[in-house]
Structure formats: C-alpha cells, structure tokens
Amino acid sequence: MLANVQTPPARTANTQWDAKSYQQFARLRERPVLELLDHVDLEHPQRIYDLGCGTGIATQLLAKRWPLADLTGIDSSAEMLEEATYLPIKALWQKCDVREWRAQSPADLLFAAAVLHFINDHQSLLPQLLSQLNTGGCLAAHMPNWRDALWYELMLETLETGGPQGRPLGSARLRQFMAERTVLSLKSYYQLLAPLTKELDIWETEHLQVVEGTSPIFDWVKVSALRPVLLALGEREKERFIEQYLRVVHQHYPQEANGQTLFPFKRIFILATV
C-alpha cells in the first residue's frame, strides 16, 4: 500500500502516462504550441528535437513546418511514444528522460512544449540545454505557470485538510513536494539566460480556456499536475482526495449557463537564440 508515502515522487520519475486522457484537450494544448512556433524565426533547421514530445502534438506541427528536417521526439513515457508513433510524419522517437538526454549532434532547434515545469533546477537545466545548440540555434519552450492558480491552491488545501476530522492526506514530504516551485519568475529567467544568448524573448500569457464536461478542470489536471498525488496516495486516501477536491473545484469553477466552464490558465514562453 502507498497510503503512507515516506518520500515524495521524483519529478518525471514515474513514466506511466494516460496518453488517451491527455489527448482529451488536444486542441487547447496545441494552441500554445502554435503561438510559440509563430515566434521561431528559423528558415531551414536541419536537426530538431522535440523534448517531452508526449503524444506528438508539437512534433506533428514541427514536421509540417520543416518537413526536410531531421526530427526526433524525446519522451520518458512508453505510452505517450506509442501513441505518437501512429502519426503520419517522418520522425524518430526516443525514450529518455529530458534530464538525462544529450543530443547526439548539436541541434538547430530544441522545442520544449509543456515539459520543463515538471523538472526542477532550471538554473542548471536551461544552460545545459543551450549548450547543445549550434551557433544560431534556438531553444523554444513554453510551460504552465500554475503554482499560484486557484485550482492548484485548492489541491494543496485538500492535501492539508481533506482527511477525516480535517487531518492531512498523504505524507508531509508529498505535501512539501507539491508545494515546491519549479518555474522561475520572468526576471529570473532573463538574468539566467541573457548572458548565454544572442537573442532572448520571454513573455507570459493568460488564456481563458473554455472547457466542457462534467468535471473538465479535474480531467485536465489529473493527467499533469495531479499525477504525483494520484500516484502516491493509497486507494482510500485517493478516493477521499478526489471527492474533496472535486467538491471545492466545482464550487470555485461553476459551469456557465451554457454548460461550459471557464478555466484561466497562465503560461510562460521562452525563445532563446545562441
């Protein structure tokens, strides 16, 4: 039983992902990829790596824009990569943790869509990624900035007080793990990356996502932000957590009159050219 977790799960350590559920909001997940791609000013990149490619949402768009490039999708999840292999594109697929991955040959474009926020120590990670680019090469990344989002705070509160008689759920180390901040401030990214780059563009957006379904916000976050919680809790604690979390999420994110739910979502974008 995993009800009494003694150590927090390492970020990205568990490589099992629900690829089918992740595809539920594929069009909304594709939108920030398109926004990021629109800012990439490379005419003919020869070697492209899609880091944390998942089911290939971004990989497919990269292949469409640069069909002659050597394109490789990198992901730690066999389930995600299996889904990606069905795409009708010319690409190689490699199972590897982004933290351990090294380019076999220098890249012209490293594309990282919604993956870097799962990895801590960006002060070391991002310079290491930049070092694998050719001169003139680009790191293009976007990541959710969800740590201060209401739904994330509700998750932390549910872990702290969602047990019987208001007791915590899971271990103290799990709760500490979930409270950590992996994403830096815009200023911190600038100070980290400016000395290492020739061109640097950093911006943040907030998209008022309109989602549909009985519990669409839970359906979105259960395959991403909530994975460590759902993997760590034992069955009884997990059932209680889901029950308590759904209750407060529905209170704070009620359906509109047309049955849709408004889901504000912040993202950070980084475009770094060396």
TrEMBL record:
Q: Which InterPro entries match?
A: Methyltransf_25, SAM-dependent_MTases_sf, Trans_acon_MeTrfase_C
Annotated ranges, domain Methyltransferase: 48-137
Pfam families reported in the protein's UniProt record = Methyltransf_25 (PF13649)
User: Is Transferase among this UniProt entry's keywords?
Assistant: yes
Give UniProt keywords alphabetically: Methyltransferase, Transferase
Write down the Gene3D superfamilies for this protein, in alphabetical order.
Answer: S-adenosyl-L-methionine-dependent methyltransferases (1.10.150.290), Vaccinia Virus protein VP39 (3.40.50.150)
Q: Which residues form a coiled coil?
A: none
GO molecular function annotation = methyltransferase activity
Q: Which SUPFAM superfamilies does UniProt cross-reference here? A: S-adenosyl-L-methionine-dependent methyltransferases
**Gene Ontology terms describing biological process:** methylation
UniProt cross-references to CDD domains, sorted A to Z = AdoMet_MTases
In Swiss-Prot or TrEMBL terms, this protein is called Methyltransferase domain-containing protein
**Source organism of this protein record:** Pseudomonas weihenstephanensis
Organism taxonomic ancestry: Bacteria, Pseudomonadati, Pseudomonadota, Gammaproteobacteria, Pseudomonadales
